[in-house]
Design goal:
With about 210 residues, this protein is mostly helical. The protein contains twelve helices and no strands.
Length: about 210
């Protein structure tokens, strides 16, 4: 009964949930393949394995909750503001710079999730959730560009969303900044300028 009462206390505590998420993210950062065990997470958080399962149900939910928690702890307001509120067409450049500034805060876990998503269903779920959120924000941005009449007529909104998503995908950032050593600020500037040339009517592009 004492053990059961301890588990009930763990489950009822928001602090316990936060400790589990913090520990999960820390172990994911240290891992090389995301093969993080529930037992190690429980030990690191100072809770029972049962408490982890009672909070999150399974490993897939735990990984998803951990990446969502990390996003909430990071400075994502600028990304959302660029997509929804910043004046167009400058919002496109603001979005690119804000997103690329955010990527280093979620590396190397984001890269590991991307790689592991090919074979690990739990990682695939967590990675898809974050990428779908990014596409949703891009969709809101493109809708505003189209409504303002600054989107080139040869692009449909669906194509423009796909193109921005492709050009700003974290795998591209990782290949050039993470592996090839590109300066991240210069990378953001080049991608932003390229997207503006591709998508924005010339008369609406501010001179550099």
């Amino acid at each position: 009964m004492a053990g059961q009462r301890a588990n009930q206390a763990e489950v009822g505590s928001a602090d316990t949930r936060e400790r589990i998420l913090e520990t999960t993210w820390a172990l994911m950062e240290k891992s090389r393949d995301l093969q993080v065990r529930i037992a190690d997470i429980a030990a690191g958080a100072g809770v029972s394995r049962q408490a982890v399962y009672l909070h999150f149900g399974n490993r897939a939910n735990l990984l998803l909750a951990a990446v969502q928690y990390r996003d909430r702890q990071s400075a994502t307001a600028a990304i959302k503001r660029a997509a929804a509120d910043d004046p167009v067409p400058q919002a496109l450049a603001n979005f690119v710079h804000a997103w690329f500034a955010h990527i280093p805060r979620i590396q190397p876990v984001a890269h590991l999730l991307s790689a592991a998503s090919q074979t690990d269903p739990d990682a695939r779920l967590a990675f898809a959730d974050r990428m779908n959120l990014l596409r949703t924000l891009i969709g809101a941005l493109v809708a505003r560009l189209a409504a303002a009449g600054v989107l080139r007529p040869e692009w449909t909104t669906a194509q423009a969303v796909d193109w921005i998503w492709h050009q700003t995908h974290l795998d591209g950032w990782w290949h050039l900044v993470g592996q090839r050593g590109w300066d991240p600020v210069e990378y953001a500037r080049r991608v932003s300028a390229s997207l503006e040339r591709d998508l924005i009517k010339p008369e609406n592009i501010a001179p550099e």
